[in-house]
């Protein structure tokens, strides 16, 4: 069994920075898993991709164009930082980088949902749609990892090297192989699903929901497994979009300070998150091109200012989407 990192004599600031170091490891693990997948760009091997067509009876290509342009503009704003070789910039730009990362991929996904007639303005519903699509094998294996299940009964999918959590499992361990990456990713999925359940409990407590009242009509202070399971049954599959949404939420609260005070390689973190944006946008852009036709997609692409997406959407189209024709 691997040795865990040596115990350190943490200062107060170091202790506060642990969550951000954990997030860094977790997001690096996602990129590691994607990079290791040799078929990540070979969408034709996915039966769902081959069957994609427009399903929206009120389809308006202008709506897809608007959503894609917003996605590309947001991705450009995120990638500006890559040209600035300054660690302090990467550190203090986290306040807006987290939402930028989430919204860029959310907008491209919504553009695809528009072609299928399922687009909506509710983020939780859109994330649920993505999770269900992952479960139904609509996405490439590189991003088809997810967790589902009730309290203490989580099941992990899309992580073939993951065989369970070892007794000595450190979320700060270095990632040196695919097995390490999948273990980190499983941990990320588990903690995110638990957090989603805890957040829902808080919302239900504010409502004094009838399913959780005591005989005196008060919201119960202690939850048994049977109570937690009611909540978990209402929580959809937890996927990569839940992980991104969790990061986006962090930018809204004071715990962003834990990132700023962390002793991590902010440039590497920025690049890892940028690679995730790049890949998720590639998938949805390819799906859109398949639905509306490659000529229509290329027209949307060519009408956008090329100097803003030359290294992103144009590159993806020329290198990975066009060959799928």
What distinguishing features does this structure have?
15 helices, mainly alpha, 325 residues, globular, disordered N terminus, two-stranded antiparallel ribbon
What helical percentage do the residues reach?
55-70%
- Please mark out the parts with pLDDT under 50 across 5 or more consecutive residues, or reply none: 1-15
Strand content: under 5%
Spatial order of the strands in the main sheet? 1-2
Q: Can you walk me through this structure?
A:
It is a single chain. With 325 residues, the chain is an all-alpha fold. The chain has one domain (23-324). It has 15 helices and 2 strands. The protein has helices spanning 12-16, 18-36, 47-50, 61-79, 87-92, 94-116, 123-135, 178-207, 225-233, 240-250, 256-260, 266-292, 294-302, 306-309, 313-321, and strands spanning 146-148, 155-157. The protein has a two-stranded antiparallel sheet with strand order 1-2. A hairpin with a 6-residue loop joins strand 1 (146-148) and strand 2 (155-157). The longest helix has 30 residues, at 178-207. The model is unreliable at 1-15 (pLDDT under 50).
Write a compact overview of the structure shown:
The chain is mainly α and 325 residues long.
Topology, element by element:
Blueprint: H1 12-16, H2 18-36, H3 47-50, H4 61-79, H5 87-92, H6 94-116, H7 123-135, E1 146-148, E2 155-157, H8 178-207, H9 225-233, H10 240-250, H11 256-260, H12 266-292, H13 294-302, H14 306-309, H15 313-321
Antiparallel strand pairs: 1-2
